[in-house]
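step 3/5: co-fold with glutamine
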Amino acid sequence: MAPAHDTIRLSAAAMAAALAAGEVSSEDLTRAHLARIADVDGDLNAFLHVSEDDALTTARQVDARRAAGEDLPALAGVPVAVKDVVVTEGMPTTAGSRILEGWVPPYDATLVTKLREAGLPILGKTNMDEFAMGSSTETSAYGPTRNPWDRDRIPGGSGGGSAAAVAAFEAPLAIGTDTGGSIRQPGAVTGTVGVKPTYGSISRYGLIAMASSLDQAGPVTRTVEDAALLHELIAGHDPRDSTSLTGGFGSFLDAARSRDVAGLRVGVIEELEGEGFAPEVRARFTESLAALERAGAEIVRVSCPNFRYALGAYYLIMPSEASSNLAKFDGMRYGLRVVPEDHPTAESVMKATRGQGFGAEVKRRILLGTYALSAGYYDAYYGSAQKVRTLVQRDFASAFEKADVLASPTSPTVAFRLGEKTDDPMAMYLNDIATIPANLAGTPGISVPSGLAEDGLPAGIQFLAPALADDRLYRVGGALEALLEDSWGGPLLAQAPDLKGASL
Ligand code: GLN
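step 4/5: write tokens
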């Protein structure tokens, strides 16, 4: 058997091959990841909960089934980490909030059931901005996650824990959720791959809802092929989710492996490449496009004039839906309950629980959303935002007449410093400028590393496709990854600085 501590640096696909060849057991592979978490997570804080027993139980079952000669699913035995906004039976689930502290859900989200049925040991739950509201993981009630590339920097958000865990080799695969960019932006700033699938293509049953018309779960990985494998595993219709689509998905794995962009029309979104984007982020973006062009892709320019209103519309629609979704956290049903001694009525318990249980950003959004939905302002705010949403969808429709996929830098800058934007919500919200349009339109997007930019930190390029054409993202993403890795002489993560003396 190969030493499992070497295997943690492989891709998930390579781990699956090593498991299938009997070169390593799932138990050893899982233990190696648990050891890595024990070693580095004190610094990184990517995990809110490590589920050692649960993970090892699954690993041993998979090993036994393999020993018995059973035909196992592709990723059986490869460990995975799950963002803490996804409910897990028997494992605490907090969504990064005090208000859910101590809550242990009595059921699994559908996607977790799929992970378990496919034999993926669940390593634990990853840190995140409280209720997925943020772009830096700093609004977590349990302290920020640090970026493995530079521990004074943010790992992106809201899914910074999942991205940092994957970048630091604590987990080869992770689940994220993307309401306005929370899979793609952390991917970009940690040098990992993140996919926001078509809205409705992955069950949201068991996801703690932030903004129901925007939320979508998806894969966080180190390679495009791994994202395709995980995406194929968790996708599919679920009668328990009324927004769940029925089928029509292409083969992501074939697309990721095709390496063929000949004739593919890549549309550069004019509104998302100029002002506000850091010079080196733009330079890596331009170089990525040039590499695709040399490989036979056709680069065209498209204009999406209404994208400039997308951020404003999102920050009305998202808080409006969140203010309603979060009403259920009242101190009566889940987690925290604060009972005031002097006057313990139902109302005072709710007030005290919500007052102490929610952090400042969550309160800000509940206030914003409640205001936007209030009788006198509904048309002016929520109504206008919905109209912008339609205009953004129309921009996509006309852009996709000229291009098969669209492209932009994923995030305007590389990872910023912890604390740099916490006092300036507008500056924080502007991180999402490029990622939000896809959420408003329900269309899919992928972020793949484009190279090192300012301060030697990773930048990402985002590709967007029409609804249900997620396979195009894998085709272009897989091809670009191969082209760039050829020029870098290996994966971008191989260039990350040492973490606790252990080479990343
Ligand atoms: N940063 C965005 C926000 O704070 C996106 C969050 C997300 O995708 N969950 O709303």
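step 5/5: annotate
Residues 132-135, 158, 177-182, 210, 318, 432 surround glutamine (CB under 6 Å).
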